[in-house]
């Protein structure tokens, strides 16, 4: 017996408001589990509320569900770290190695030609402004993927990632390296610092995009 929209809404309210769950992925999984279990019990004549209460007790009540969410968060965090590590490593393998090499050359050239300009207050303000604007457009694209679909404009996403990472790399350099150190360091050292931040920012944004894509696909299915 298929559940009605009102019954599915009751399950969602039960998980969110009555049991204080917040993780959307876990709520989706539990909703499916609740729905399947309740449907089975409804076919035997068990009332909806009693069936939902029985499944709730099977999870150990609110305490059991909250403990499940805590464990779910921990496992998700580990998975995200593994995925972030794999994305970072991919920038040292073909074909993405070309992006790393090209970015390093650009950063090295900028560090050679304009070492002190990176410390300028005007440049710092400009970098922060551009980074804020590119972040705005990047997250706006994330929020509109349900309309355009993930994967149709991957080049635009990559450009946004690159701009974010490039400008934030210079901004970090400006924040953390005093003028004297910046002048005395070899450009290769400052380039290394920049490329580390650059690849980290790119990888983090890509991780976010992959996660958003996964969430949208699960919702649409």
What distance separates the N and C termini?
20 Å
Number of domains: 2
Helix content: over 70%
The radius of gyration over CA amounts to: 24 Å
Transmembrane segments: 97-116, 122-138, 158-177, 189-208
Keywords: Membrane, Transmembrane, Transmembrane helix
Could you describe the 3D structure shown?
There is one protein chain. This protein has 221 residues and is mainly alpha-helical. Helices cover 82% and strands 0% of the residues. The two termini are 20 Å apart. Residues 143-152 have low confidence and may be disordered.
How are the elements arranged and paired?
Blueprint: H1 5-18, H2 24-43, H3 48-58, H4 61-90, H5 97-113, H6 121-143, H7 145-148, H8 154-176, H9 179-184, H10 187-220
Descriptive tags:
2 domains; 221 residues; elongated; 0% strand; mainly alpha
In brief:
The chain has 221 residues and is mostly helical. Helices cover 82% and strands 0% of the residues.
